[in-house]
């Protein structure tokens, strides 16, 4: 395997993890050295200072980033996260994974990601709007419908995308809905976009349970993370007939072996904003949730939560990665050696969001909009094709499922770079 060399600019554990995954996949397909580094390293990054006038009259400087990993196959695409632990290395890793995800799904995009170091819960609505608009103002020369198309991610939502679209539109002098996706419907958002990632996770879970001959109405599910992705995944799986026995957020987890009323939990969260003190089950920790006896375990929060420490104690049959990078390479090796857990890797499992973002972008460019049923039908067809290609690659080369997905995504990006050549 190639030696992992990390640029000081992106030096972080999560970027090292993404690079290790890349090098393993590149070695597996004998990617030539001449194209390897060009495929791996981000194309460019931007770090910005974001001065915001707070409600008390003071000015606070926030720090923001945008990393565009690849633009070889089309404009770059990726979310913007508002989180207190954002680093440029994390953003670069997420941008890299987005490149492989878009490539695997056959979307005409490269990967990108953005982030701001902030806890959005600490801001008033007025301060949040000012920060969102300032971030877009600083990005205007680097984003656009044919250049880089942001979307919501952890800590951001459709309202923030609406503010960003409005900021960009005011700058260019006309309404430009295709500059971001994940917008409100009234501003050109797509039917089905809000639930797209969770719906895709649930659809793939159902498909893989069928492959394992496990009826979904007998399946128990534990979900770490009950934000947009986790809650929509829970709702979709409950509608399919699965029993959701555990959910969590940053305040802790709730466990109920008899099943949690997901609609009730969503309603509670809408008003309380956190799951703490929700009476739908017994409180446990997020760490305990990961080790529950269940059919399906779904990490739907942050990176690197399945580690070499807890991987031996997992008691699920199917591990579905709704989050990006939730499983470390060391944990991957343990899971492979165990042989009793099937994995749906993140670049496939959570790809529903970027697929429907692509649909939203297409609808904006054409000014022609689809119904929710049309959107979800198209989404599930694309997920079926991607799943089939991963399974074919896995069986052909005897790869594990993550390696199969990564080699497909990486090879397509490398081929595009090779075909375009190197500009003098």
What would you say about this model in short?
With 424 residues, the protein is α/β, with parallel strands linked by helices. It has helices at residues 13-28, 33-40, 88-105, 125-139, 158-172, 196-211, 228-240, 262-272, 286-290, 329-338, 346-349, 352-366, 372-397, 401-420, and strands spanning 44-53, 59-68, 76-83, 110-117, 148-152, 220-224, 243-249, 252-255, 282-284, 296-299, 318-320, 342-344.
Explain what the structure shows:
This protein is of the alpha/beta class and 424 residues long. The chain is built from 14 helices and 12 strands. It folds into 2 domains: 145 residues, Leucine Dehydrogenase, chain A, domain 1 (Rossmann fold); 154 residues, NAD(P)-binding Rossmann-like Domain (Rossmann fold). A 7-stranded mixed beta sheet has the order 9-8-7-6-10-11-12. It has a 5-stranded mixed beta sheet with strand order 1-2-4-3-5.
Key structural traits:
alpha/beta; Rossmann fold; 5-stranded mixed β-sheet; 14 helices; 17% strand
